[in-house]
Write a structure and sequence with these properties.
alpha/beta
Length: 427
C-alpha cells in the first residue's frame, strides 16, 4: 500500500472492522503525517516505521496488537527517525514486555504519550524529562513498577498525568510545584507510601486528584482544600488521619469526594454546606464522631451519601429528606438514635441502610418492620409525658409546702416578738 500511495499524507481508518495484521508496506508511505487506525481488530506486532520521517500523529489504540520486550526495542528504535512526532497513542492493546531505554530517543516535540491499558512491565519510562512539550502522559493499567523519578518535575507543560493501576512504590516526589498546568493527576491503586505532597496544592488548575488504594499516611495537606476548581477527590483506602477542616466548605466546585476506609476522626464540619456542587460523598469506614450536622441537608445536588461504619451519634437530620436528588444513603453501623425520617429518600430505603444503630426506631409498625428497628412507641412517649407531669406536680407541691411553712414560721416569730414587747411594756 505504501508503494502504491507514496505521497499520501493522511490515512484515517478508525472505528471500522479491519482485522488481521497491519500491512508492513503501509509504513513505506514516506510522506504520511497522520496515521489513525484506532478501534479496529488489528492483531500481531507493529511493523517498523523507519521510512515515516514526516509522521506527526500515530494512533493504533483499541486494537489487539501484541509485542515482546525485543519487539518493543525495535519498534521504539524505529520511531527515533520520526523527529516531528507529536502524538503516540498505543492504548488498549495486548502489548507486553519491558519499555526499552530507546524510548528516550523519541521526538522532543512529543505532546501525547498514551500506552495505557496494556501489559507493559518494567520501570517508569527512562529519559521522560527530555520531552519538555509533553502535555499528556497516560500509562495507567499496566504492570509497571519501581519508584516514581523526581525527573517528572521537569515536565512543565504536563496537563494530564495518569499512572493508576500499576505497581509503582515508594514516596511520591514532592515536585508538583513545577507542574502548575496539571489539571488531572491519577495515581491510585499502586503501592505508594509516605505523605501526600503539599506541592500538589500549587496546581491551581487541578480538577481531578486520585491517590486512592495506596499506603499513604498523615493528614490531607491544607493546600488541597484550597484548590479552586477541584471537582474530583478520591483518597480512599489509605492510612490517612486527622480531622476534616472548616476549609472543606470553600470547595464549591467539588462534585465527588471519597475518603472512605482511612483513619479520619473528629466531627464533620458545619461548613460542608459550602460544597454546593457535591453529588457523591463517601466518608465511610473512618472514626468520625459527634453528630451529623444539619448543614449536610443543604447539599441540594447530593445524589449519594455514605457515612456508614463510623462513630456518629445523635438523631438523623430531618432535612435530609428534603434533598430531592438524593438516591443512595447509608448510615449503617453508627450510634444514631431517634426516629428515622419518613419522606424523600427514606421512603424506599431498606434495613441495611440503618443496621447497627440500636437506638433508632420507626415511626409506625410498617416502617419498623421494613427497617428492622423497634417502633417508636406512643406509649413510651405518653409514659415519659406522664412521668414529667408527676415530677412537675411533686416539685410544685414541695415548693408550695416549703413556702407555706416559711410563711408560718415568719408569722409565728412575728407574734412571739410582739408578745415579748407587750410583756416588757407592762413591767
Amino acid at each position: 500500500m505504501g508503494f502504491r500511495l507514496p505521497k499520501i499524507e493522511q490515512l484515517l481508518l478508525g472505528q471500522n472492522h479491519f482485522r488481521g495484521s497491519i500491512p508492513e508496506s503501509l509504513f513505506n508511505a514516506s510522506s504520511i503525517q497522520f496515521l489513525d487506525l484506532p478501534s479496529n481488530q488489528f492483531q500481531g506486532s507493529i511493523p517498523l516505521l523507519r521510512n515515516m520521517n514526516r509522521l506527526i500523529h500515530l494512533n493504533l489504540g483499541l486494537n489487539n496488537l501484541s509485542s515482546t520486550t525485543e519487539q518493543n526495542f525495535h519498534f521504539f528504535e524505529s520511531l527515533s527517525n520520526c523527529t516531528q512526532l507529536q502524538d503516540l497513542i498505543l492504548n488498549s492493546n495486548q502489548l507486553s514486555g519491558e519499555l526499552p531505554h530507546s524510548l528516550s530517543n523519541l521526538s522532543t516535540v512529543l505532546i501525547r504519550f498514551c500506552i495505557d491499558n496494556n501489559l507493559f512491565t518494567g520501570s517508569f519510562p527512562i529519559g521522560i524529562e527530555k520531552f519538555q512539550n509533553l502535555m499528556t502522559m497516560s500509562i495507567e493499567r499496566n504492570f509497571l513498577t519501581g519508584p516514581l523519578p523526581h525527573s517528572i518535575g521537569a515536565l512543565h507543560n504536563l496537563q494530564l498525568l495518569s499512572l493508576h493501576i500499576n505497581n509503582f512504590f515508594g514516596e511520591i516526589p514532592d515536585v508538583f510545584g513545577n507542574l502548575t498546568k496539571l489539571f488531572e493527576l491519577t495515581m491510585g491503586a499502586n503501592q505508594f507510601s509516605g505523605k501526600i505532597p503539599t506541592t500538589i496544592g500549587q496546581c491551581q488548575r487541578l480538577s481531578k486528584l486520585d491517590l486512592a488504594w495506596n499506603s499513604l499516611v498523615g493528614t490531607i495537606p491544607m493546600e488541597i482544600f484550597r484548590l479552586p476548581i477541584l471537582n474530583y477527590l478520591y483518597l480512599a483506602r489509605n492510612y490517612l488521619n486527622g480531622s476534616l477542616p472548616i476549609e472543606l466548605g470553600s470547595m464549591t466546585k467539588l462534585e465527588f469526594m471519597d475518603i472512605s476506609d482511612n483513619r479520619f476522626s473528629g466531627n464533620l464540619p458545619e461548613t460542608i454546606q459550602g460544597c454546593i456542587s457535591m453529588r457523591f460523598l463517601n466518608l465511610s469506614r473512618n472514626n468520625l464522631t459527634v453528630f451529623i450536622p444539619n448543614s449536610v441537608g443543604k447539599l441540594i445536588a447530593l445524589e449519594s451519601l455514605d457515612l456508614s461504619l463510623n462513630n456518629l451519634s445523635g438523631p438523623i437530620p430531618d432535612n435530609l429528606e428534603k434533598i430531592s436528588a438524593l438516591q443512595k444513603l447509608n448510615l449503617s453501623f453508627n450510634d444514631l438514635e431517634g426516629q428515622v425520617p419518613r419522606n424523600g429518600v427514606f421512603i424506599n430505603l431498606e434495613w441495611d441502610s440503618f443496621q447497627g444503630n440500636s437506638k433508632l426506631c420507626g415511626n409506625d409498625k410498617d416502617a419498623a418492620q421494613r427497617l428492622k428497628v423497634p417502633e417508636c412507641s406512643t406509649r413510651r412517649k405518653s409514659s415519659r409525658h406522664l412521668s414529667l407531669k408527676i415530677i412537675i406536680v411533686l416539685v410544685s407541691s414541695i415548693v408550695f409546702t416549703s413556702a407555706m411553712f416559711l410563711i408560718w414560721v415568719l408569722i409565728f416569730l412575728k407574734k412571739k416578738k410582739m408578745h415579748r414587747g407587750i410583756s416588757s411594756h407592762s413591767i
